[in-house]
Design brief:
Blueprint lengths: L1 H46 L2 E6 L16 H18 L3 E4 L11 H15 L3 E8 L10 E5 L3 H13 L12 E3 L3 H5 L4 E8 L3 H7 L2 H21 L1
Parallel strand pairs: 1-2, 1-3, 3-6, 4-5
Antiparallel strand pairs: 4-6
Helix pairs in contact: 2-7, 4-7
């Protein structure tokens, strides 16, 4: 009788071990799968390029006023919105400093500081600040890219962009230009360029810059330049 009890006990013990191993194995399998999926997602998210698109001015700060009375802030935002769409089609994560009429702070200084803070918090692969130019001589024209004098990566991005924008600005002959006084360029910790898309003081460019077609052409050229820069790193 005692022998039978012992055998039954051994059988129950072995059965318990088998069940425990099976449950533990399934848990371990699920846990490992979860870890792999989570790790894969983390790696995928980290490898996705991040670009900040900064539409200059806004709110009570119209920026330059064109010979056709166009406001720079409105053109900047339109081009920025088109640019965002083009970049997202290329699987590039886009962060906009503004997506509506308003700027980031009441004062100009406060607005610039808020933009710099936002850019530095996200540490993007590149920031492109969209602007329009103006000059006292109406004959002056052409898109031009500015970069921080002491940033080789920004210089590289600017030179690529200056070539890329020529697909939209057919008459363009300008070169990328260094600058060490623009607040945005100086205070941003990651590569950044300022894209002056054209001169609102030039009648021909001012008229083109308010059209949907040219805004899309400019945005597409900038998008192509960004993609080329990201691939070159």
């Amino acid at each position: 009788m005692q022998r039978k009890v012992k055998i039954a006990g051994v059988i129950l013990l072995l059965l318990g071990i088998v069940i425990a191993c099976r449950i533990g194995g399934e848990y371990l399998y699920d846990h490992i799968n979860t870890e792999i999926e989570t790790a894969g997602k983390t790696i995928s998210d980290r490898e996705k390029p991040v670009v900040v698109v900064d539409a200059g001015h806004g709110g009570g700060d119209p920026g330059k006023i064109g010979v056709n009375n166009a406001k720079e802030k409105d053109i900047n935002l339109s081009i920025a919105v088109y640019l965002k769409k083009y970049l997202e089609k290329e699987e590039i994560q886009v962060i906009m400093t503004r997506e509506d009429e308003e700027r980031l702070a009441d004062s100009q200084v406060g607005d610039l500081k808020a933009r710099v803070r936002m850019i530095n918090e996200h540490s993007p692969d590149l920031t492109v600040s969209i602007h329009q130019n103006s000059y006292h001589e109406s004959s002056v024209h052409g898109a031009q890219v500015f970069y921080y004098t002491h940033s080789q990566e920004s210089k590289k991005a600017a030179e690529i962009m200056q070539e890329s924008i020529k697909t939209a600005d057919k008459r363009g002959s300008r070169q990328a230009k260094a600058n060490d006084t623009y607040y945005l360029l100086e205070k941003t910790k990651t590569p950044i360029i300022i894209m002056e898309c054209g001169f609102l003081s030039n009648h021909e460019e001012a008229e083109k810059l308010v059209t949907e077609k040219y805004q899309k052409d400019v945005a597409k050229s900038i998008s192509n330049g960004i993609a080329e820069y990201l691939e070159s790193r």
